[in-house]
Every structure is written in structure tokens, then in C-alpha cells.
Specification:
Blueprint lengths: L6 E6 L7 H14 L4 E6 L1 H5 L6 H17 L7 E5 L5 H9 L5 H6 L1 H10 L7 H4 L1 H11 L4 E3 L5 H18 L7 E3 L30 H9 L20 H9 L3 H12 L5 H27 L2 H30 L4 H7 L1
Parallel strand pairs: 1-2, 2-3, 4-5
Helix pairs in contact: 3-13, 4-8, 4-14, 8-9, 10-13, 11-13
Bound molecules: tryptophan.
């Protein structure tokens, strides 16, 4: 007999369509891991609302975008369980329990939260829900009893905070919660933006979306930032910090060819336009099948609803059981049990 399969929980905030950065940082890994692990993918609509309270229609629409993007890159609905966060109210109850185990100053020192607050210009006016999202994420991770949490580099401090909650809970109330571990992709963890900035993001306007049309992808690639010091194709070019090459590293299956192109670029023997045209072709090879799966799912909204509804129901049963253990460990009176013997 083999050991029971270990559990993975990972999540997306539905705040817009997913892009190549999401793919390189998280989705590619998920597609591989679905074969080895019991996988839950949480569409974290309540977390998305923590900085989008005024844009509920964006969150509602993005739930479907995110589901379709996951399916389009190759996640198999027969293997993975898609769960809608707001469909599992027990997560909110776990959050309330965990909020007592975390201090406000610790949340303010969380490097991810700090950076996200800076990017959103929140300062002292941060919504309390946003400041506390790592606690709600601790509920997500522990609620599903996840052993592993595949995330991009930037989410590691959030998983670290979950580990602190688990440690503290188990210390106070006895061994109850599963200790999770973050799992980051080995290569190409962080894709830069088309403008060369450190991170691809929708809000920075430097993203290539998984659902972009061939024309849009082509235009975005041809407009990419390269080596600003290079004026002619015969000038030696810089490969480091050049996003065109970062994308080739992440998406061109011909690694040897990429190395060759890099040395020609460094030597001033290939122009920016030629390199970009090659990249556009590489991305098309990757995106075309994704686009086809995407449009086929687009035509089956009933199936999408069924996937999300059935997955949420299965996920909810797991989280309910965890909440039962948590309340029992704390030792609060168990009303459900009282009703049974009544
Ligand atoms: N915070 C994650 C992000 O922004 C999304 C998320 C929500 C998540 N719940 C999760 C990730 C649970 C891993 C596990 O990408």
C-alpha cells in the first residue's frame, strides 16, 4: 500500500485575467503537481474584495476568468478540486479564531503585505480586511489541511505567517493543525514586465494575458523594453535585465537555441527586432493551444458552473471537518452535539 496522497492548496485572487507572470510563477508548477498531489485550487473572491470592495463586478467576472485560465493551461477538472472561497463560510469562522493568535504589528511587518500596501498607496488607511488577509489565508491553508502550498516567491512570507499561526494554535490547544510548507518554482519564478520592471502585473500595464489575441501579443512583444543603451544591431547588447531574454528562458523549449541567441546578442550579431520576432513566435506556440482550450470552455458555461459548484461542495466538507476539530481543541461548547442528544 502506498502512503495517502499529500494535499496541496493553492489560490488565486480573482481580480482580472491571468497573465504569463502567473503562468511562470504558479500555474506551470500546478499543472505538473496535479498528477502527484491531491490538489485544491481556491478562487479567493473574498480575499480579492479586501482591496476591491468598490469593484464587486470585477471580482464576480474574474472568478470565471480565473477558472477558465486554470483550465486552459491544462489543469484537469477530473483531478483538481476548484473551490470558491465565499462558498465555504467555515473559512471565515477559522479566520476569526486565528485573528486572536496574530498581532497587528506582526501583520504590518509582513514583507508581502508591506509591499502590497505601498503599491496600493494605503498607508494608514489600509482596509482592516486587507491588513488581515494573511490570517484569512491561514484559514484557507489549514482548513484544507494542506501539506504543501505552491506559490510564487512573493507569497512565501504569507505562508510563513500561516506557519506561525499553526505553531501557536497547536501550542495553546494541542496538536490539531497540519503544518504547511511553501513550495516555490525552481526556475523562472518571477517574470518581469514587458517594460522591464521587476514584476509583471495587470495594474502596472506591463502584462501579456493568457487570453490575449495573436495581434495583441505581437504588438506587446514588439513594444518590449530591451537594452536601452543599444542603438544598432551591431552594438553589443546586454542580456541581463533584458525581459525579452527572461521570457525566452521561461517559454522557449529550445534552451540551447536561447543560449546561442544570447551570445549573438552580446556580440552584436543579431538585432532586437529579430529577437523579438523569435519571441513572438515562441509565445504563439505556447498560447495558441491555451487560446483554443479557453474558447472551448467559454462555450460551456453550464459545465463551468458545475465544476465550481461540485468542487466547492467537496471542499466545504473538508473545511467543516477541520473547523470541528479546531473548536473541539479549544473546548468551546459544541452546540451541534448538544442538539443531537437533546
Ligand atoms: N494571496 C494569494 C495571491 O495573491 C492568493 C491566495 C488566496 C492563496 N488564498 C490562498 C494562495 C491560499 C495560496 C494558498 O496570489
Amino acid at each position: 500500500m502506498s502512503a495517502p496522497r499529500r494535499t496541496i492548496l493553492t489560490g488565486d485572487r480573482p481580480t482580472g485575467p491571468l497573465h504569463l507572470g502567473h503562468y511562470a510563477g504558479a500555474l506551470a508548477n500546478r499543472v505538473k503537481l496535479q498528477h502527484t498531489y491531491h490538489t485544491f485550487i481556491l478562487i479567493a473572491d473574498l480575499q480579492a474584495l479586501t482591496d476591491n470592495a468598490e469593484r464587486p463586478e470585477l471580482v464576480r467576472q474574474s472568478v470565471w476568468d480565473v477558472l477558465i485560465d486554470n483550465l486552459a493551461v491544462g489543469l484537469d477538472p477530473a483531478r483538481v478540486t476548484f473551490v470558491l472561497q465565499s462558498g465555504v463560510p467555515e473559512l471565515a469562522e477559522l479566520t476569526q479564531v486565528y485573528l486572536n493568535l496574530v498581532t497587528v504589528s506582526r501583520l504590518q511587518r509582513n514583507p508581502t503585505v508591506k509591499e502590497e500596501m505601498r503599491a496600493r498607496g494605503f498607508a494608514a488607511n489600509v482596509p482592516a480586511g486587507f491588513l488581515c488577509y494573511p490570517v484569512s489565508q491561514a484559514a484557507d491553508i489549514t482548513g484544507f489541511e494542506a501539506h504543501l502550498v505552491p506559490v510564487g516567491e512573493d507569497q512565501v512570507p504569507v505562508v510563513e505567517q500561516t506557519r506561525e499561526v499553526v505553531r501557536r494554535f497547536n501550542q495553546l490547544y494541542g496538536e490539531t493543525l497540519v503544518m504547511p510548507k511553501a513550495m516555490t518554482p525552481e526556475t523562472g519564478a518571477r517574470l518581469p514586465g514587458t517594460d522591464g520592471k521587476a514584476k509583471m502585473s495587470a495594474s502596472a500595464g506591463n502584462a501579456i494575458n493568457l487570453g490575449d489575441s495573436p495581434e495583441v501579443v505581437h504588438d506587446k512583444v514588439m513594444g518590449m523594453y530591451t537594452d536601452p543603451a543599444r542603438e544598432r544591431a551591431t552594438d553589443p547588447g546586454r542580456v541581463e535585465g533584458n525581459p525579452v531574454f527572461s521570457y525566452l528562458d521561461a517559454f522557449d523549449p529550445d534552451a540551447r537555441g536561447v543560449e546561442e541567441l544570447k551570445s549573438r546578442y552580446r556580440a552584436g550579431r543579431v538585432g532586437d527586432v529579430a529577437v523579438k520576432q523569435h519571441l513572438a513566435a515562441v509565445l504563439e506556440d505556447f498560447l495558441e493551444p491555451v487560446r483554443q482550450r479557453r474558447s472551448s470552455w467559454d462555450q460551456r458555461p453550464d459545465e463551468l458552473r458545475e465544476i465550481l459548484a461540485a468542487g466547492t461542495e467537496r471542499g466545504r466538507a473538508v473545511v467543516k471537518a477541520t473547523l470541528g476539530k479546531v473548536l473541539a481543541a479549544i473546548g468551546l461548547p459544541d452546540v451541534a452535539a448538544m442538539m443531537k442528544t437533546h
